[in-house]
Amino acid sequence: MTADGALARVIRSAADRAARAEAEVCELCAARVAPDHPHLYDTGAAEVRCVCGPCSVLFADDGAGEGRYRIVPRRRQRLPRVDTGVLGVPVGLVFFVPRSDGTVTAQGPSPAGAMRWEVDAAAWQRLAASVPQLAAMTPDVEALLVNTARGNDEHWIVPVDDCYRMVALVRREWRGLSGGGRVWPAVEQFFRELTERS
């Protein structure tokens, strides 16, 4: 064995380990997942988990996993303006998630992650009665995503994983006390890239 051969193997081995560490894997079976992979919402931990296609099929029925895991749908639907002011949340970049137990949470991105508020469930029900698309949302895994910050007027029904992606983007790009010059262009780009899908 030559020194060059051993060194090359060590370098290749380290590079292979780094590539494996960077590659996303299914959190159920550890198989590598494609860049555009399905997600499960873990109701017990209130977290989104990456899964491969075959594992996601196991949870296509809402009763699978004793209801602990729910497949996150892919639907995105752009809505006309929704008057979310009636919900009493004082920020312009926020998402609302109706829960299986009838509660509704609002979350907004911040440099420290998502800020969370409880929304008056009766106010949400009144709003959903006037906007039928809200009444049809799947609890826990779909959200009303709103961006009225800085003169924007964006209203979407999206999967919750899109919302968590947006929170991570704000946290990554935020600089200083006011956000700096990178965060708002990144948020605007995020919304430009949203596309409707069923």
How is this structure best described in words?
With about 200 residues, the chain is α+β, with helices and mostly antiparallel strands. It is about 30% helix and about 25% strand. The protein contains 6 helices and 9 strands. It has helices at about 5-20, 55, 120-130, 130-135, 160-175, 185-195, and strands spanning about 40, 45-50, 70, 75-80, 95-100, 105-110, 115-120, 140-145, 155-160. Strands 4-9-8-5-6-7 form a 6-stranded antiparallel β-sheet. Strands 2-1-3 form a 3-stranded antiparallel β-sheet, with no helix packed on it. Helix 5 (about 160-175) packs antiparallel against helix 6 (about 185-195). The radius of gyration is 20 Å and the shape is globular. It starts with a helix and ends in a 5-residue tail after the last helix.
